[in-house]
Amino acid sequence: MRREISNKETKKLYDFTRAHYVEYYDLQTELVDHLANGIELLWQEKPTLSFEDALHIEFKKFGIFGFTDLVAERLSKMNKRYNKLILSILKTYFTVPRLFLTTMMVLLIYVILSTVAYKEYVVIGLFIMLLLVMLCKTMVYKIKQRKLKRGRQKLWMFEEVIYSHGQSFTLFQILVFMPQHFLRPGFLLKIMNYTVGVVFLSVVLTLFLIGVYVIVHVIPSKAKEHIANVHPEYNLV
Q: How far is CA 62 from CA 31, 73, 102, in A?
């Protein structure tokens, strides 16, 4: 008679993956299935092999870093998926009917920058304010995530990317790739001496405003739908 993984042993596999720093239920489930299949194949060859010994043999196949590389690889894929999701939504703001609203926003910012005093500080202040909004949203989710962990509730990788990791990664990209001199008042003042420069800044600020809006509101507002697209079992748990 073929020896199979019991429900009790399945629970032990979930505990094992969690103990080895796999926090996300979707990835835990994938690993549990992989380990269970491997153990059952070993039992076909060695029926008397204990569950613990079989698990040890299967885990060794993941190398010295265990599940770490797999988690990092999956997280990288999820970040790429998240970035594609952002771009797909951003594109809708440059097609009818949202194109009209986008154009109006550019014109409004252009008028403001053309009329206010200390306009360079207005630009810097707006950038900083938007970055702080993203940071606050990330911190709020981190607090929620800690509560979920304490309550032993299920965490999902794409949910983490949408609410926390994706925003943190986007913030990092903005801060690293945005030219450092761009936020210097002297540099901004030179740009805004020319109409073309003011138009350029108006477009950049509009893109940044829309991007932050998409990241902190649009995507999270439909988070369950996006998560279910990646993890079909999300609505079943």
A: 11, 13, 49
The pTM (predicted TM-score) of the whole model is 0.76
Distance CA 122, CA 102 (A): 20
Residue 173: pLDDT band with limits 50, 70, 90: low
Least Cα distance to 32 among 55, 53, 13, 7 occurs for 13
Determine phi and psi for 155, rounding to 5 degrees: -110, 145
Beta-strand ranges (E) seen in 67-114 are none
Q: Distances in Å between the alpha carbon of 105 and those of 102, 108, 141, 149, 202?
A: 5, 5, 30, 41, 8
Structure-token pair, residue 71: 């988690």
Q: What are the two backbone dihedrals, phi and then psi, of residue 218, each rounded to the nearest 5 degrees?
A: -60, -55
Helix and strand tally (H, E) in the chain?
A: 12, 0
Residues in the chain: 237
Compute the distance between CA of residue 26 and CA of residue 17 in angstroms, rounded to an integer. 11
Average pLDDT over residues 159-174: 67
- What residue segments make up the domains of the chain, in order of their start? 7-66, 75-236
pLDDT at 183: 57
Instruction: Compute the mean pLDDT over every residue in the chain, rounded to the nearest whole number.
Output: 83
Alpha-carbon span 160 to 28, nearest angstrom = 15
